[in-house]
Structures
1.
Amino acid sequence: MTSFDFHIHSGLSACAEKTMSPRQILLQASKAGLDLISITDHNSSANVKTAMDLASEIGITVVPGIEVSSVEEVHIIALFEEYGSLAEFQKIIDENMPEAENPTDIFGYQLVYDCNDEIIDTDDKLRQIGTNLGVDMILSEVRRLGGYSIPAHVYRYKFSLISQLGFIAPGSDFDALEIGSSQWKKEKFKIGMKIEGYPVITGSDAHFIEDVGRTSLNLESSEKIKSPGEILRLIARLQPG
Ligand SMILES: [Zn+2]
Ligand SMILES: [Zn+2]
């Protein structure tokens, strides 16, 4: 069995708790029995490399990922097989971030950590806003880089496909749809179910360390799966049961 959560924030997201360093996230995820996680900060991935460097020591797989905001303010989780592809995608995001400084008194700091929980940098750019990239552009760039796009918390009252666009378009290049974890539990979603033809998953969207591991999905597998693509392909083939 492989237990995974593709949606976790670190202290690099202004809205997340500052104890959420890569090491503390991985330790908590390991304690909770997760095999594979992604650290998905808002329009930023500066803590991912550190998390990947810690992965083998802590015994967890870290999938390179990010939560990108489109120009329509739709949040999309982008996952990659290789760190280099995420780094390429980050360059595209940085070229398309509106020039604005993070008002720390309103949003909080955006922190970069080393492997030992030391804060080594602060990101002063405002990241909690939409980029200049449309949803379609994000989907095509992620695909071009060999990655996967999963619109986040699709029914949430803000920053979702439904709140920003009003619909989930069939035939789009989404690899899955993420249902917010409380809705997932309340409405008894299961992997194998589909909406508009897209497989559904959930993620913790953890902003506090104790929320890491509270939400996870389990996929039957004889060996631990380490590739996000493999997980998404398996889920797409499942029947609800
Ligand atoms: Zn979000
Ligand atoms: Zn999030």
Note: The helical segments are 22-31, 48-58, 83-95, 104-107, 135-144, 161-164, 181-186, 228-237.
2.
Amino acid sequence: MAPLTEHRYRSIFSDSTPDERRQNFEDYLVYARERAGALLEHDKDLTSKREQLNRFRAHPVRSRRPLDDPRAFYRNHVVFRDDPATIDRKTLLWTCVYKFARHEWVGICAAWDASPRLVDAKTTVARISRYHLAEEFCHIRYFEEMFRTFGLDQVTWVPLSPVKQRLYRLFPRVPGALKFITELLGVTFYRQLDTLLDQLLGDELEARARVRDLLYEIMMDEVAHVGQRRNFLGTGEIRIARRLVAPFFRLFLRDLPESQRLLDINQMVRDGLTFDYSGLPVGFLEQTWIPSYCRLPSMPGRTQASIRRGQD
Ligand SMILES: [Fe+2]
Ligand SMILES: [Fe+2]
């Protein structure tokens, strides 16, 4: 794992005014465009992220040894058929990553069809939403690259059951507090994943480094998404969101049989409730996006976008 930053910001649950949030949306859109590049509607892709992925693909890294039993991955990645206790932890890691990413894939497919194209998006929030979804599609391609790194070349994205699929189609209409919590859950999951790479892949240094590079590309966006989704929430909503963190995390993870064996769920809940941008890998804070009201008063008052441009 990369060294972790100690630089402290304010809690993600800090209050904000409507004016601050309006300004922060504008700032976020500038950031998203700078980081992701131009949106390629037809391909659900973004130019900078595509270039980055192509760089990874041009220099592929593959694990030295295949998984003990790749068939165990394919047998259990969609639905767990075996007893998880009988599956080696490396394989469990990949079935767990698949299941988490699959939920994302289902959610974004439904949301993409329901949201206006960038040229038709009339508001800043609608433009942000289109960028956000395209970033999530890029993450799916990064996940596929992770699987390939460990010899899992046949991974396809399988729709959820019809009932759950219908539920996900409602996602664009769920309250903002829940959308925020799903992003927060994502970041706490990726932090656990980062720790697991050290615990489980010590015999695959090159492949582990590649997977970590891919993970950090995803995680950087997800940290920015936490702030962006938080920015939708007023005083009452952010209080409600805080109360929902623990039950939502536990409910979601109950559906992942691997979580009991791999993840420290109590720690994930704590990480969610205490999220203040500390403990992230060094270098993240300079590159991700953080709402202005999560910065301490003593910190520079520049916008995140202007920091990236090197302006005052
Ligand atoms: Fe995501
Ligand atoms: Fe996200």
Note: The pocket of fe (ii) ion (ligand 1) is lined by residues 104, 136, 139, 186, 222 (CB under 6 Å).
